[in-house]
């Protein structure tokens, strides 16, 4: 292939990556924004979404698209329930102390990994895509499913944005984010808000995972990369800023796609991680964040 | 104050005596635990004493391990100088990371150190031509000797690990009693106040991190030579979390805590692995239980309740 189509392919792969990454990272960013804690188990919620999608699509009778739709709805609910339980049992008891939460969510991530290993096994297993048509470009054919992933992610992200800015629940979340104390004084049950936000963040990671699993396969260790990349995106975008998270996800997704295709995936990750560390050191509010 | 010295010398003597009674499997294990405990002691100086919660210590451990391993394997340096180079590498990388990461604090410090360590791990994978990536490489048996001492033999390996551990323990003990050690504790307890008292927080914290890196580098270098294997796993996030776990379990800020934590955790994982494959859940549950119910760890609790003189 010539350079042009090759670059186009790299950009398209990058866009798919950016879409899934944006969903995952927005979940992490939401949790950080409202609760002020870093959830190291976020990657494991992603993994749980993918693994449970395998179970749902395997046991669900009927055509693949129906099973997949079922997974798309059931898995995030399941993962959200797990997250809400973790919030009640662990995070709440630690009074959301940021350092303790990091250690606790590391512990949680090991337990979730072990659960997946014990109940699902060490193999990577495929999930059938809901449909298989291909998009025929002049230079190469491209998976129509991947295009659908990008569209679905965009719709979901708009939904999250509308939810946060237009709905009453979103208003309550933003109130809690700005000033938990005052929100409590106005009769908002911040404990419930925290549980809900934690579940919502985990659910978004799970949706992203269900969308990616027909492309990537489900594996009990698959949470590491999304976690790291979400960290990168959330930090570069500015902790807690949804708009910055989106821009950063597109930036990282596209550059990862291009560098991975033309150089090596490992080099792309090295550059991204170093970039993040330096952003945090020299611009702790993130590249797009407004305030510290 | 002398009770403390007697206690620590007693631990060293007991460890020396253990080698004559232990069966071979536990003999090797204990040598491994002493090396890992040295790593954990270094971690304790940063986290327990100074309050720097780093998630990047695998980088310092890996730096020591790879510097030593590569210098022996690729450059053909004798083991002695390679070990010293490994220790220095751990310290140098810690200083480099510290200069940048110490500009931040709290959660940001954790993430920055984690990110640097991850970049280091990926770098090991990237230069697979030399490091053999995930697979790692074995150090020649013939190269694992200093003068007449063959470090691959069981007896010498145990003694070498004991020497390393004892040196680490004694330096740690001396540090906690020194003015420097106390200024490190002051950083942990109240950085603003110690700044007003005229201490330079950045300098004290960088010193703590450098010392911590020297420990980690020494442990990594020793691990490479004593067990003859260098692999990317040792630079992975898991090896940043293990010393944290050891220190939390044994008691952050206590001199013997890292060793106690390493000993108990090693055997907890070892025993649970022989019963089920569920050793991950043991690590996870231990972290959760510690942070929820016993944030001071074993020796921290003992010190608080019964033995206030425990260093």
Characterization of the model:
The complex is a heterodimer of chains A (292) and B (311). Chain A starts with a helix and ends in a 10-residue tail after the last helix. Chain A has helices at residues 3-35, 42-59, 64-91, 98-120, 144-166, 168-178, 180-185, 190-216, 224-237, 242-262, 265-282; strands at 134-136, 141-143. Chain A has eleven helices and two strands, in the order H-H-H-H-E-E-H-H-H-H-H-H-H. Chain B has 311 residues and is mainly α. In chain B, 76% of the residues lie in helices and 3% in strands. Chain B has a two-stranded antiparallel sheet. The mean pLDDT of chain B is 90. The A-B interface holds A 38, 90, 93-94, 98-100, 102-104, 106-115, 117-118, 228, 231-232, 235, 264, 266-267, 269-270, 273-274, 276-278, 280-282, 284 and B 53, 55, 100-101, 103-104, 106-108, 110-112, 114-116, 118-119, 122-123, 125-126, 241, 244, 248, 277-278, 280-281, 283-288, 290-292, 295.
Task: Map the helices and strands.
The complex is a heterodimer of chains A (292) and B (311).
Chain A: H1 3-35, H2 42-59, H3 64-91, H4 98-120, E1 134-136, E2 141-143, H5 144-166, H6 168-178, H7 180-185, H8 190-216, H9 224-237, H10 242-262, H11 265-282
Chain B: H1 2-21, H2 24-49, H3 57-75, H4 79-101, H5 106-126, H6 128-131, E1 137-138, E2 145-146, E3 149-150, H7 154-177, H8 179-189, H9 191-196, H10 201-227, E4 229-230, H11 238-250, H12 257-275, H13 279-293, H14 297-305
Antiparallel strand pairs in B: 1-4, 2-3
Quick one: which chains have the greatest interface? A-B, 40 and 38 residues
Q: Stretches of chain A where pLDDT falls below 50 for ≥5 residues?
A: none
Kindly report the average pLDDT value of chain B. Answer: 90
Unreliable stretches of chain B: none
Describe the strand arrangement of the main beta sheet of chain B, using strand numbers.
Answer: 1-4
| Major β-sheet annotation of chain B | 2 strands, antiparallel
Helix and strand sequence of chain A: HHHHEEHHHHHHH
Helix residue percentage of chain B: over 70%
Tell me the structural class of chain A: mainly alpha
